[in-house]
Write a structure and sequence with these properties.
Elements (H helix, E strand, L loop, with lengths): L9 H29 L20 H11 L1 H19 L2 H11 L7 H8 L3 H19 L3
Helix pairs in contact: 1-3, 1-6, 3-6, 4-5, 5-6
Length: about 140
């Protein structure tokens, strides 16, 4: 991962960082939305005119269609997949940075994080930029 020739505006950078901070909650939200679709008691009746609707008649097919076409789930899964894809390829020290900075309730100053990993603060900032840029690139946001 290198940051040369990659430009990312500040708003996009902050948005990707926000997604990193929200990652644990985003995974829970995906599961909540899926459960909401899977376990709703009755499918909504959208047939107002009296003719046969265009939704499949089988409840299992309706659930599958609802899961596959839910835009919120699709977006959240795309973000989670991008974060996980980048995270899985990181060396151990960079994974530790992500865990401490974005997913931990522990003190989050860059000085403390750098000390915990055994690196300098400037190097921590470089790693941060590389990680955020890699996620943005994976999402097509650069």
């Amino acid at each position: 991962m290198t940051t040369t020739a990659i430009k990312l505006d500040k708003r996009t950078f902050r948005h990707v960082e926000k997604e990193l901070y929200d990652y644990p909650e985003t995974k829970k939200e995906i599961q909540r939305l899926r459960n909401e679709i899977l376990y709703r008691t009755a499918p909504p009746d959208e047939n107002i005119g009296g003719s046969r609707g265009n939704m499949p008649g089988n409840p299992t097919e309706q659930i599958a269609t609802a899961l596959m076409t839910n835009r919120r789930i699709e977006y959240l899964e795309r973000v989670v997949n991008a974060i996980e894809s980048v995270y899985e390829r990181l060396p151990t020290e960079k994974k530790k940075l992500v865990e401490l900075k974005y997913w931990s309730t522990w003190e989050k100053s860059w000085g403390h994080i750098a000390d915990a990993i055994g690196i300098s603060v400037p190097l921590a900032y470089i790693w941060r930029r590389e990680i955020v840029f890699a996620i943005a690139e994976r999402l097509g946001w650069r």
